[in-house]
Amino acid sequence: MIIDFRMRPPARGFLNIGVYDNVERTAKLTECFSMKQAPSVAQKSPELMLQEMDTAGVAMGVIPGRNGHFKGTISNDDIIKLLGDFPGRFVGTAGLNASKREEAIDEIERTVLNGPLKGVSMEPGALDKPMYADDPRIYPIYEKCEKHQIPVILMLGGRAGPDITYSDPKIINRIAADFPKTNFIISHGGWPWVQQILGVCFFQKNIYLCPDMYLFNCSGAADYIMAANNFMQDRFLYGSAYPLMPIVDCVEHFKTLFKPEVLPKLMWKNAAKVLGLEISEGD
């Protein structure tokens, strides 16, 4: 059983964003991590993607919503339709534009509380007018999520903003402390602030890390691995960042990095717990 916590299928609105509109450019980024682009990405083929998931043993992928990103928006309705296109293979989270508070709160009501999506996803630093994720204007959105125990995915790491200060671990430290009953999932794992984000997670127990692409053949990986094998084993998530990284190769590489006894937690149990999914290893 594997749950891949960061996937964007080659279908519907995702085909209009940068990773798919120029797959040659995406392939060059994949090569920076000493991996090769998956055939399903080169051919933009959902059928091949499903075959690659089956080969790797990936039962389910988590689709993080995208709203207001400078490279394009995918509607939450598109994400909901994708769940119907591939029954049982994906979990969706609602993309929220952090700069549009009322619209974001309405989307939580419509797509999460009264819809099939299991959490929310925001990328405040990637807006046309970038925001830090601890901007007080975003706090009503966090308050809504805390009230209803909705997990929040924040992109803090990699190109999360115009410069690396938008991924500074001080940001999530403040938010997680202000909303202690909310589970925050940090996609891109706070990279390149690896030791700093791990230091924050040591004390702040409502933060989950999904380094995804930055775990594979990348600086800082050894620190992520040490933490996931020890104090972070209940809050560390497997993710490939597909289509930027290949599904099969990422799974094979990931399995070599960690203690066998913690792998089930990292590869699916932690994801199921934070998303509230009622599944068992035999599903």
Topology:
Elements: E1 2-4, H1 18-21, H2 23-32, H3 39-42, H4 46-56, E2 58-63, H5 76-85, E3 90-92, E4 94-95, H6 101-113, E5 120-122, H7 139-147, E6 152-155, H8 169-178, E7 184-187, H9 194-203, E8 207-210, H10 221-228, H11 247-255, H12 263-275
Parallel strand pairs: 1-2, 2-3, 4-5, 5-6, 6-7, 7-8
Helix pairs in contact: 4-11, 6-7, 8-9
Query: Which band does the percent of strand residues land in?
Result: 5-15%
How many runs of DSSP E, i.e. beta strands?
8
Largest sheet composition? 5 strands, parallel
Averaging pLDDT over every residue, what do you get? 96
Query: Ranges with pLDDT <50 over ≥5 residues?
Result: none
What does this protein look like?
This protein is α/β, with parallel strands linked by helices. 39% of the residues lie in helices and 10% in strands. It is built from twelve helices and eight strands. The strands form two sheets. A five-stranded parallel β-sheet has the order 4-5-6-7-8, covered by helices on one side. A three-stranded parallel β-sheet has the order 1-2-3. Strand 7, helix 9 (194-203) and strand 8 (207-210) form a beta-alpha-beta unit. Helix 4 (46-56) runs parallel beside helix 11 (247-255) and helix 8 (169-178) runs parallel beside helix 9 (194-203). The longest helix is centred in the middle third of the chain and has 13 residues, at 101-113. It is globular. The N and C termini lie close together (8 Å).
